[in-house]
Amino acid sequence: MFLFIAMPLSAYSHTRGEAGARIEVDQDSVRINNDDLKSLTDTIPTIELDELTVTGSYVVGNATGYHINVGKKGIVKGKNANELLNFLPNLTEEEGVLKINGLATHEVIIDGRKVSDLSELRNIPAELIESVDVRYTAGADKVTNTAGGIISIKLKEIPVKGFYGSLKGNIDAAYRNGVDIGGMSGMINGRFGKFSIFEALWGSLLDLKEWHTDTEVSPSGDVVRNLLDRIKSKQISNSMSLNYEINDKHNIGLNWYLGVNDRNSRNLNVDNDALLMKSHSKEFSNMITLNYSGTLSRHDRLTVSGEWMMRNYDENQSQPSETVYLPLTDWRLNSDLWKFSADWQHNFTSTHTFNVGTVYNATDSRIRRGRIQTDDLRQDVLAQTPLIYASMQGSFSKVSYYGGLNWQMNSVKVSGEKSNIQNSINPTVQVSIPLGKNRITLLYKHILDNIPYDAITEKKVWSDPYNYTIGNKDLKAPTEHYVSVTAGLLDSRINLSAIYWHDMNVIYWPTFNDPQNKGISYTKPVNMDPNDFYALVAELNYRFFGCWTLKAVGRVSFNTENSELSGRLYNKTRLRQYYSLSNSVNLRKGWGFSVNAYVEPTYRYYDRTYHTVYQVNCSVYKTLFDNTLQIMADFQPFGKRRTLDRMSEDRKLTLKYTTPVQHFGIRITWFFRGGKRDVNVNVRQSTIDYREVRDTF
């Protein structure tokens, strides 16, 4: 993960190419005069700066997190975007969730476009990524629902009148399941004159069997049920971005996302093959975003964005009787989301920037019975979140800072009810202090969470014939104080974090007995009393022999309990642990492999006990034909699935997944590129704040 080059820059003040382009080199940066570069573009295809060497790390810390250049690193080989992120400092992927210092990310951005579906990351090869920016928490300009931060990915530069992309296909087979998933995806990134286009299309077919055992222990006797869920689904998603550069100061962009998911599941009793419940759901999402950004003056920049998203979701759940299927759930959800944001940026100097702006979110959700349109079987939810903010960031000498303040109001109105309104002033402060090869980052943030309008609806959703969830219209929005100290030692080889957060009105989903149906349980969200959480995170990133990258993570958290549920008082401090070890090895002649493992020991929290879970995942890849074709085999040799205990008043409910973890998959990726190529200034082994070099081009 680290770069060492011995030759000092002080030997060079400047050099000049044959066509007269001036290349200035000093201790901190490389700059190429833009006017000279344009004359150079048509005359010399490549400039080799063989004599230029730089000493530095390719992890660049700043006030909000860090920037890392991965464009030509071996770590990108044989990985998708999400697999690459798992190897970066302070990032982990846990059960499909990307986390920063153990907290779920607020959002992921690719080339300025918000990712609507994280499965897109599984379909973007890491070889096409140039750099990644990680912010430890969302700034004052974001309406947040978590203390987690933002991951911003920048793809490789597009050649003028050129393009690049990939096509990928994969198929996976699992023990006792046979072939259970297959998918195809493709993406292209191109630039033609003043137009740039990004297009990604992916789809998958799923045929999955999930075995599990439900056990109920109660005073009236024990019940054990062996169940099987048979799940089949078809999913297709498309993401497209168009950008038009009006001139060198103004550009506009259009982003479009479309997603369709059709899912069928059948719940059966394994002992007698009886069908207990069947479910069918359809989801259609359509999102359009318009962006404008422009330089108004030498020191001022304006960015404006408007977004509309439509989501239609139908769900039908039923159980068989002697002659017909009796409906359990039959709902139709139609939602429209609007978002508007405007940001004005003023650069006081080259090192201090001021931002001020506003964000407005509104969501109109209409929930109805699927086939019956009557007033008494519908629920409308209107949620609005206006926000205004101001922030300042910059540096004094080597100390970087970010300070922001916003006012946010959350308003939710359910049909027939009074509006639930909460508002708050939320500060965010971050300071980054370099100490030689070490860096200390201090962070404080106050959060007013969005009121979870999905959780206040009164529709039932069944997980199996014996358990369902239902909303709670009286919920309040959680608020939170979050404090962290992160130390990056020895150029981020070692990262240590200490985290504290204080939650008020945190939402928890306890389990209750259904008073009208014996043997049926349900979960319902409630607001809890204030809780404190503490966490310590230690991480080692190291590279051996120039080809082996190792990352080890250990996280220990202490969760306090301070509430009463179903007549039981919970007032203990619970320990939760997580450990992972990731290895990536790149060998000669295009070979490489990865071995990743994690374990989460048993922990308790209120009325639930989460038993030990662990997994080991392996992959082997080979690249062919000058790195244009990549073949990968990935497999999971062993692991342990989750077992969950829940207390429901006088009953203990245990869900134990018994599906074998073993699976084997094949992934084939073809990389292509074409069109006219740019001038390529090839700075060998150079990572001097690489953003400055890239921005010149």
Give your account of this protein's structure:
The protein is mostly beta strands. It is built from three helices and 48 strands. The strands form eight sheets. It has a 22-stranded antiparallel beta barrel. A six-stranded mixed beta sheet has the order 5-6-12-13-10-11, with no helix packed on it. A four-stranded mixed beta sheet has the order 27-28-33-32, with no helix packed on it.
Task: Offer a quick outline of the entry.
With 697 residues, the protein is an all-beta fold. It contains three helices and 48 strands. The protein has a 22-stranded antiparallel β-barrel.
Strand content: over 45%
Total beta-strand segments: 48
The total of helices stands at 3
List unreliable stretches of 5+ residues: 1-56, 678-697
Overall SS class: mainly beta
Question: What is Rg?
Answer: 27 Å
* Distance linking N and C termini: 25 Å
* Main sheet properties: 22 strands, antiparallel, barrel
- Shape descriptor reads globular
Proportion of helical residues: under 10%
- Roughly what is the average pLDDT, rounded to an integer? 85
Pick out its properties.
697 residues, 64% strand, globular, 22-stranded antiparallel barrel, mainly beta, disordered N terminus, six-stranded mixed beta sheet, 3% helix, disordered C terminus
